[in-house]
């Protein structure tokens, strides 16, 4: 058709076509024929109203639905079919999990990889020392398995069977070893408990038994056992030395007593001889009739008296010497017992820091609680934990960590009162016993210690480190409130940690 036709001409021809084709005069039919006659296709009308109606009835409860409905409204407003399509597809897929792609076809492996076989062989070899020599069958299976894993050809089916047999046997051996270990530890603790019960009258031996009981309490660590071993070895040496000196002193005391008894017997014998001489002379004097008969008797009496006096002086001097030696020996025995008690007390202290250990803490708490109730005075406990202690160990080594703990203990002893007692509760945790202290005063005391620590840097290899701690303070309530007070102080310490560290919280 000619594009120069006027709109009226196009309209007339459109009406003629409607009549010729017997079509209903609807807007859609008229528009289609009009475009056909004019040769110009008009853009379809955008169904804004219909789409908005659909938009209002679509669910919009979840954040994802709300987001997509907002995008859909923008697409309708902009009459953007492409955006509308993308939003509708996204809404349709909302909440659907992505389609799982099938895994790639696996390659059939029949031989055990070399690296895996080597690692398995090392694992089996490293497992055997922990099992001991009690089960020969386990060692036999382990040797066979290691030999197989080191062969060039290692079929997976054979490896699976051998590993299954070894694992089955290993499970029984491990259970047996665990049972044996627990049984031996139980017997050892029973021996320690029996020694402690039978040594009440020997404080030094009782202290050692209590220390061994504490050392054998699970969980056991090599470092803890090594520290206790060194400490007990030193204490046992001191006790052995003091015990030998005590035995020598007791032997000397017995010798002195024997000498004393011998001197008393000699005095009794001399006295009997003197009495016999006096009686004999008195009898002879009674029979004498002349003066010259009496003179020799008087001389004999004088000689016997002088001999008796001389013997008395010698005996008195010897007895005085025995007395002095006895007193000196008694004083030495007393001092030796003090040394033994002191050596025993060392078993109640932490070998690294010199603070009380758990056993010493329990005894100190028992004494202070009894004193607090007897005198009707308050008693507080503080539990402190060194901040960032693991970072110190990781960066500078465990030796630096130990020195940091000793620095903390040293400053604490200088700052706190003489009656306050410090105990190592475990690792980097310490407990302070604060007699005659209210809760508020206990918090102030710990804050004062924190301020003092910030003034005294810990020096390690020319590096100045600031040691801080977080602490909880609790007041002891009731005669059996030791464990409860420490538990509440521990909770306060964790609150202080969560609040930013280097803080004190009253619990």
Automatic annotation (TrEMBL):
This is diguanylate cyclase. It catalyses: 2 GTP = 3',3'-c-di-GMP + 2 diphosphate. Coiled coil: none annotated. InterPro entries: Diguanylate_Cyclase, GGDEF_dom, Nucleotide_cyclase, Rev_trsase/Diguanyl_cyclase. GO terms for molecular function: diguanylate cyclase activity. It holds the Pfam family GGDEF. Residues 377-507 form the GGDEF domain. Its EC number is 2.7.7.65.
């Amino acid at each position: 058709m000619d594009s120069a036709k006027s709109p009226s001409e196009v309209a007339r021809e459109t009406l003629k076509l409607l009549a010729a084709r017997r079509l209903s005069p609807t807007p859609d039919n008229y528009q289609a024929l009009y475009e056909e006659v004019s040769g110009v296709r008009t853009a379809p009308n955008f169904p804004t109203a219909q789409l908005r109606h659909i938009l209002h009835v679509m669910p919009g409860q979840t954040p994802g639905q709300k987001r997509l409905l907002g995008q859909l409204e923008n697409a309708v407003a902009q009459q953007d079919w492409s955006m509308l399509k993308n939003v509708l597809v996204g809404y349709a897929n909302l909440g659907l999990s992505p389609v799982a792609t099938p895994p790639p076809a696996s390659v059939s492996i029949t031989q055990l990889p070399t690296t895996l076989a080597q690692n398995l062989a090392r694992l089996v070899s490293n497992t055997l020392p922990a099992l001991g020599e009690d089960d020969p069958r386990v060692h036999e299976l382990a040797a066979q398995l290691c030999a197989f894993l080191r062969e060039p050809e290692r079929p997976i089916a054979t490896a699976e069977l051998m590993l299954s047999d070894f694992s089955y046997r290993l499970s029984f051996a491990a259970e047996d070893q665990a049972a044996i270990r627990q049984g031996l530890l139980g017997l050892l603790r029973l021996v320690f408990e029996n020694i402690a019960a039978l040594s009440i009258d020997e404080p030094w031996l009782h202290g050692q038994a209590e220390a061994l009981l504490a050392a054998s309490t699970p969980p056991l660590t090599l470092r803890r056992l090594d520290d206790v071993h060194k400490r007990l070895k030193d204490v046992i040496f001191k006790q052995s030395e003091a015990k030998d000196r005590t035995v020598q002193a007791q032997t000397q005391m017995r010798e002195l007593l024997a000498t004393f008894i011998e001197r008393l017997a000699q005095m009794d014998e001399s006295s009997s001889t003197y009495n016999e001489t006096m009686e004999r002379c008195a009898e002879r004097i009674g029979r004498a009739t002349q003066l010259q008969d009496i003179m020799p008797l008087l001389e004999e009496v004088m000689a016997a008296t002088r001999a008796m006096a001389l013997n008395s002086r010698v005996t008195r001097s010897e007895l005085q010497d025995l007395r002095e030696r006895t007193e000196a020996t008694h004083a030495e025995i007393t001092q030796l017992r003090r040394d033994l008690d002191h050596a025993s007390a060392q078993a109640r202290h932490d070998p690294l820091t010199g603070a009380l250990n758990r056993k010493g803490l329990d005894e100190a708490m028992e004494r202070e609680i009894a004193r607090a109730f007897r005198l009707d005075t308050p008693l507080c406990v503080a539990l402190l934990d060194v901040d960032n202690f693991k970072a110190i160990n990781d960066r500078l080594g465990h030796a630096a960590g130990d020195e940091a703990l000793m620095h903390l203990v040293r400053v604490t002893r200088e700052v706190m009162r003489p009656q306050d007692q410090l105990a190592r509760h475990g690792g980097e945790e310490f407990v302070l016993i604060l007699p005659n202290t209210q809760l508020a005063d206990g918090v102030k005391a710990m804050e004062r210690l924190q301020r003092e620590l910030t003034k005294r840097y810990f020096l390690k290899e020319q590096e100045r480190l600031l040691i801080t701690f977080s602490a909880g303070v609790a007041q002891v309530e009731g005669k059996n409130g030791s464990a409860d007070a420490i538990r509440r102080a521990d909770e306060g310490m964790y609150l202080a940690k969560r609040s930013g560290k280097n803080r004190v919280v009253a619990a």
